[in-house]
Amino acid sequence: MSDLVSCTHQGDVAVITINNPPVNALSPGVPEGIRDGIAAAAADPAVRAIVVIGGGRTFIAGADIREFGKVVSGEKPRGSLLPLLLEIENCAKPVVMAIHGTAFGGGLEVAMAGHYRVIAPNAQVGQPEVKLGIIPGAAGTQRLPRLAGVAKAVEMCAFGEPIRAADAVASGIADRAIEGDLLAGAVAFAHEVAGKPAPKTRERNEKLAGADPAIFDRARQQAKKTRRGQTAPLAAIDAVEAATKLSFDEGCEREAGIFTGCLHSTQSRALIHAFFAERAVSKIPDVPADTAPIEIGRAAVIGAGTMGGGITMNYTNAGIPVIVKETTQEALDRGMAIIRKNYANSVKKGKLSQAAMDERLARITPQLTYDGFDQADIIAEAVFENMALKKTVFAEIDKIAKPGCILASNTSYLDIDEIASVTGRPELVVGHHYFSPANVMRLLEIVRGKATSKAVLATSMALAKRMSKVGVLAGNSRGFIGNRMLGPYLREAQFVVEEGASVEDVNAALYDFGMAMGPLAMGDLAGLDVGWRARKEFKHLEKPGVRQPLVADRLAEMGHFGQKTGRGWSLYDENRNQSPSPETAALIEQLAREAGIERRAVTHEEIVERCIYALVNEGAHLLGEGVALRASDIDVVYLNGYGFPAWRGGPMCYADSVGLKTVLARIEEFQAKHGPDLWAPAPLLRQLAERGQTFTEFDTEPRASASGRP
Ligand code: T1G
Predict the structure, then answer these.
(1) What is the β-pairing status of strands 49-54 and 95-99?
(2) Residue 187, pLDDT above cutoff 60
(3) pTM of this prediction?
(4) Alpha carbon nearest to ligand 1 atom 49, residue
(5) For the packed helices 651-658 and 266-280, what is the interaxial angle rounded to 10 degrees?
(6) Which is the closest atom of ligand 1 to the Cα of 107?
(7) Which of 225, 241, 377, 655 maximizes the CB count within 10 A of its CB?
(8) How far apart are CA 240 and CA 237, in angstroms?
(9) Which residue among 57, 159, 271, 279 has the greatest number of ligand 1 atoms within 8 angstroms of its CB, and so is best to mutate?
(10) Mean pLDDT of the region 112-128
(11) DSSP 197
(12) Which atom in ligand 1 lies closest to the alpha carbon of residue 132?
């Protein structure tokens, strides 16, 4: 047996255990070890039944995703699990799969090839392959409908969400839930079934018969709506549908063809990039993995407004008692009412139990004073975005907070070092930049100041995980990663409107590109007054003679802030339904004429290139400056904070897929047309393009950690 798979015996039951930490992926050697274990047990006369179980925290979490790249590049041929699964299924002795943790993808496919499945109550099973731009490739689309029925199989394969143990038993995927010791329960179950004819999943066709074809059409419509632009969900539906029309073997062939097509797609490459990018963000080169985080047992939040309220919810959702302070009773009541409403909505949708809601609310202490702040392990500030106010608040809390208490600012672009300069603990000051709505958006930008300690960074990353957020380290540059890049993106969106594109054109072009929302619609949602105030605060930093957008400031000066005032770039009715604004269109024409801007037809292609390449170029600038650790970190920021389509992998991954030479050439064209102040190619982009390299390759080169202010 290999060290990845071991075989022991409990009486006349052989126990095959997979030991491939951290998640028992089907890495090279694992399928072979299972095959050898099954063959040995089958041949052993003393064995009457077999149990397969995962060592450590989980059953098999799927194929080894790291191996896919080698198949796509042709470095190695695509192996198939099918022969192993048939050997398991054809085994003359019953094979019982004992599931704990997560049986995902190839893991569930191995389990379904077994004759029986027993499961721990808190385990999950799923076919999440579509989240990687592929479909199940080891007969999952053929065996799952035979066990769980067609509708369930379509749901699980097309949308990739896992199901819990109780649902797995109820739907027929698992035969029994085992409370307590899973292995003991599985061995006992094996004894019950030993010597009896073992059911082969591939022969269980009863749930396929009479499948309603409307299931597939409904799922396709839902996929086009909720997985807009993605090809894999539709491919998965085709594969499950094949199970209802073809024999098992023909269905497996059909699945294999569809799988291979998906695996070699740009979308799959992008989604696999996103998978590993999200797992890389927490690794900070100069902060050792064993850096002890500061224990966060109590928290305090200053401000119960839109952001403060959401941040308060993040702490109590993570099980941390939290004080929230406001300046007036009215503001405090308003903030708490929104928090209660948010939880009540989750209860109504069945996403949260009433008991959990009550528990979370009970952990919140709303108040008007700093009482108890001296007990907090972290104080999060979420007051109005104004440097003078932030410094006043930080000077105050620095005096009250206990030694070792972390002070975290939710500023979205102000200088963390300047804020820290009014405290006696700059090493404990950090930016925790949440995204609105803070209790929903997964992204947390962790902003490193010059003095921020490694322990505070390690604590911030651990806290992000506790809050089910994705923490990304950013250097202390104005706007950090996300908002700094958003500037040029929104600038170009406004420039093309001045040059002749309609507001609707710009929104549609980026929406069709895959963005969750067009840039101007996003401005109207966030409120045009927010950017207007920031631009006023930094007017002194604008380079004289450099073109600036004309319309947004004028709209804001006229009191048109977007959705909240019913008019911005577009018009909004009382239900926030959007429609074109003839007044805004006229204003754009007037301002462009006054500025002598020649109006022309602008293609959707140019609109996308201007906006997305501006994003990429600024990303390359801040990557070169060390404000971001990796290009993939930038991708994680945009995928989790700005509605960038996951199936494009993020702006930097997208640029790699286009080719940096092509991106650079187009940027140079824009530079020639619109000037070097707006379109100077980032030195790093030029360097990589000229070397024929990619941002992904740049990420693999060793480098120092994210710097402070450049
Ligand atoms: N392959 C390779 N590495 C994996 C992996 C996998 N399947 N799953 C996780 N890892 C690594 C991950 O990169 C990280 O590494 C570490 O394990 C811990 O992961 C034939 C073709 C199981 C729910 O899509 O959803 O099967 O950063 O931080 O939060 O039809 O990992 O420490 O170096 O995510 O506790 C289908 C993917 C594959 C499941 C655990 N399976 N994994 O979450 O830990 S396709 C999946 C997950 C397939 C078949 C097809 C999660 C998890 P590092 P983690 P976690």
Answers:
(1) parallel
(2) yes
(3) 0.96
(4) 106
(5) 140
(6) 26
(7) 655
(8) 5
(9) 279
(10) 98
(11) P
(12) 24
